[in-house]
């Protein structure tokens, strides 16, 4: 349930409402907007049903929320959330671009990729050191060695570092080097990992599961927020459909859906979303036009020899072209790049 306060409600009236809710054994979540304040109520359904708030001074109305997720919901928090990653804001006016190789392969490969994506205007370096591969015989990543390379390249080129975490026991290790924890599609419902990431404050990039509904995805984000970490960025990366030409079907309608349902920033991954480098530029352009807050794009200095996802990786030259195109579309959307 949410309690919508009148625009004229005083701080004292808001405080009394919060007190009454908490005295009934429920939790509150306060969202102060420019116009109105909303008191979100979380807890036992029966207790909420028995709560009588409409007659309290300053209360405009109460609204029942049918979705299971609460903290993630725009009903609870009407204003857009901006996640600050060491000064780079995700969810604000600027469209952020995270770019780099699928996997960290070597010092030289990463340095070349980082230099190129920085020169074209990316603000984040992406690259996996722990790779969740479909086959156990495929390249599994360089682990801590790869994390160290990511940090070094990130610091050298002033790029924020986003990298995948696959195991809750690695939070301290990955957190030592990363600015953002990436939760991959295959781990979207790894609830132990989500709970553990909720107990710390570093931002989390939560990718949509391969076959997850938008509701399941938002509930996964709720796991992180329920632990106390509000720094969640959602990422649409394509879902499995009957289509086989593309690796996945990029669901750009999810951008509009998430904007309606949630206040969290959402970025789009057209690389995994299509699996084909030829389609990355068109889909990235469409994603910005659809209203996303950012993109995560695979860029490899030599895609033909990439140890993973070469088929969907842009060359630095094509990435540069894309960034020039995105600048124009961003301007139409009254955003910056
Ligand atoms: C990746 O970003 O390289 C990756 C493995 O993505 P996903 O989890 O979306 O498949
Ligand atoms: Mn990849």
Helix/sheet category: alpha/beta
Taken from the alpha-carbon principal axes, the silhouette is: elongated
Question: What would you report as the Rg, rounded to the nearest angstrom?
Answer: 21 Å
- Discrete helix count: 11
Hetero groups: phosphoenolpyruvate, manganese (II) ion
Work out the helicity level: 25-40%
Task: Estimate the strand proportion.
Answer: 15-25%
- The tally of strands reads 14
Give the terminus-to-terminus CA distance. 37 Å
Strand order of the largest sheet: 7-8-9-10-11-12-13-14
- Low-confidence parts: none
Structure in words:
- This protein is an alpha/beta fold and 337 residues long.
- The protein is 35% helix and 18% strand.
- The chain has 11 helices and 14 strands.
- The strands form 3 sheets. An 8-stranded parallel β-barrel has the order 7-8-9-10-11-12-13-14, surrounded by 6 helices.
- The longest helix has 17 residues, at 316-332.
- The mean pLDDT is 97.
- Bound molecules: phosphoenolpyruvate (PEP) and manganese (II) ion.
- Residues 102, 128, 132, 184-186, 207, 237, 272 line the site of phosphoenolpyruvate.
